[in-house]
Description:
Blueprint: E1 2-6, H1 10-23, E2 28-32, H2 35-44, E3 49-52, H3 61-71, E4 77-81, H4 85-95, E5 99-102, H5 107-118, H6 126-136, H7 150-160, H8 165-172, H9 176-190, H10 195-204
Parallel strand pairs: 1-2, 1-3, 3-4, 4-5
Amino acid sequence: MHILIADDHPFIRKGIRETLEEHLTGCTVSEAADGISAYSLLISKSFDLAIVDISMPGKDGLTLIRDVHALRPAARFLVLSVYTEMEFAERAYSNGAMGYLDKMCDPETMVSAVKHILKGNIYVSPGYAEVLVRRLSGAQSATDQNVLTDREFSVLRMIAHGKPLKMIGEELNISIKTVSTHKKRIMEKLGKTTNAELIAYAIEHGLNKPM
């Protein structure tokens, strides 16, 4: 089997590689340090699974999954992120991920998730499965963040990290006017009227964690 690890931290890639090679017989691993190179590899070569981070230079993990699926619908993705399931899992699954794990998980859990996905199944942790069941039963509603588009959500995270609109535009390759439009829509959807309220909301929901 051939697995791609896409993460901008060499130490993280090394740890995942060693875990996979130790527990999966015949596993070969490739690496990508950013979303652009990961995308190029995934559309030019055949992989059984891609393990991707959400926050990466060039192209974030959610956008990567969506863009690759547009050309390779059968591609399999496992998201491994510093963000918890409650913060990002639903958005990841809606973009086509087949599993979501917090980077704080133990190696055994990651290997179990990988094996599960390689069999063609979707991996959902027991804790998050309960959340989904409660939501489907109407006992719990979706979070406010889920009303945002993926691009709006990316802009909100960057605002939470204190990045000015010009820098956000440069990183997302969009104009500062477009960034301002996204910000306006975010505030309208979340019911915020000032920058302070928006930043407070982002911090409250953990969106200022290291990207």
